Amino acid sequence: MDDTTPPPRGPRPAPGRTTAQTTQERTLVRECAWCGTPITLRPRAGHQKYCSRSCRQRAYEVRTAAARQEHAVAAGTARDPQEPVREVVERHTVRTVVRRSPVVPLPSWPQTPVPPPEPPVRPRPRGIRPIPPAPPAAPAAAAAFGFGPATDRGLGQDAVQRLREIAARIRTRAIPAADHPDILAAAGEILTELSAATPGGLDALTRRLPPPRH
């Protein structure tokens, strides 16, 4: 029994008399009427048959499906199951037309002339500051030093002898001071060329110098 209301209390029986007994029952667990899921009933929810609203809605649709079908047939709105389903289809056709245009040649731009590469910079020897090239000496000064044209300069011992003569003339003040910068520039060029032409540079060349004469 689902009735949970206790019976009304009457007067207490007199001592020595037999009293009537009443039994109360309450459903604790019930399966869902649609999916069969066990439902734990609350004390005042003994009438619950479905575990959720979706199960209740599905059961309602099943119970009323036959009645709704009969009503639709009587009203003439029911559809014959053998009747094909009508559909509305929208179709689009895309047409692509490729037109070939004549090839227009690009204008020829004038090319910028490429400058010639710069000559490589010769490495500067260690311990020697770069000396700007000396301007060409005057013919009178070159004749005073004992040199003729560039093609007539001697080599080897002849060059050593002439350099020593120049040193002697500088020592005796025979060469004017105005020509000293030109001589210094020429000496710097000689040292630079000697450093480039000698393996090991001026350091190796200095170790090969003869002892000074007294």
Summarize the structure.
The protein is an all-alpha fold and 214 residues long.
Task: Describe it.
The protein is mostly helical and 214 residues long. It has helices at 53-75, 139-145, 157-171, 180-197, 201-207; strands spanning 29-31, 38-40. Among the domains are: 29-75, no CATH class; 139-204, no CATH class. It has five helices and two strands, in the order ββααααα. α4 packs across α5. It is elongated, with a radius of gyration of 64 Å. It starts with 28 loop residues before the first strand and ends in a 7-residue tail after the last helix. Residues 137-154 have low confidence and may be disordered.
Features:
single chain; 214 residues; 2 strands; Endogenous inhibitor of DNA gyrase (YacG/DUF329 family)
Sequence-ordered SSE layout with sheet pairings:
Layout (H helix, E strand, L loop, with lengths): L28 E3 L6 E3 L12 H23 L63 H7 L11 H15 L8 H18 L3 H7 L7
Antiparallel strand pairs: 1-2
Helix pairs in contact: 4-5
Protein name: Endogenous inhibitor of DNA gyrase (YacG/DUF329 family)
